[in-house]
Amino acid sequence: METERLGFFIWKSDDVKYANSLWGDENVTKFIVANEKMFVEEVQNRLDREIEMYREHNIQYWPVFLL
To answer: Does 35 map to a domain?
Structure first.
């Protein structure tokens, strides 16, 4: 999906590059994890959970991008 300025999509397993740029950024994760950062393995686990949540419950936090 996209608007004039924003793009949205459902996470897929090959989106690890985007997941790392989001959840690997301490400016983002300081608001969502206790130790303020996520390591590569934690980012992969989060991506896997988002994909599984969509598969099981049809719900997911979508990545949003400026176009």
So the answer is: yes
